[in-house]
Design goal:
The protein is of the alpha+beta class. The chain has helices spanning 40-48, 52-59; strands at residues 4-5, 11-17, 22-27, 32-35. It has one domain.
């Protein structure tokens, strides 16, 4: 999966597989986490968010299985 580097103090890179709805987030600490069943709209929202960490906490964390 291709990871896109993003400008964020919390998140280093984001990857998304449209076919499976798998969202991979690499945090600045170096850990990758996979989230399953994520709609494309949530992935696009994360990429577009001014605060990636804030979007993650509001829309992804504890909402999708990891």
């Amino acid at each position: 999966m291709e990871m896109i580097r993003v400008s964020s103090s919390a998140i280093e890179a984001i990857g998304y597989d449209l076919a499976t709805g798998l969202l991979r987030i690499r945090f600045v600490e170096g850990q990758d986490y996979d989230f399953h069943g994520v709609p494309e709209s949530v992935n696009l929202g994360l990429i577009a968010a001014t605060s990636k960490g804030g979007y993650y906490h509001a829309h992804i964390r504890d909402r999708y299985s990891s």
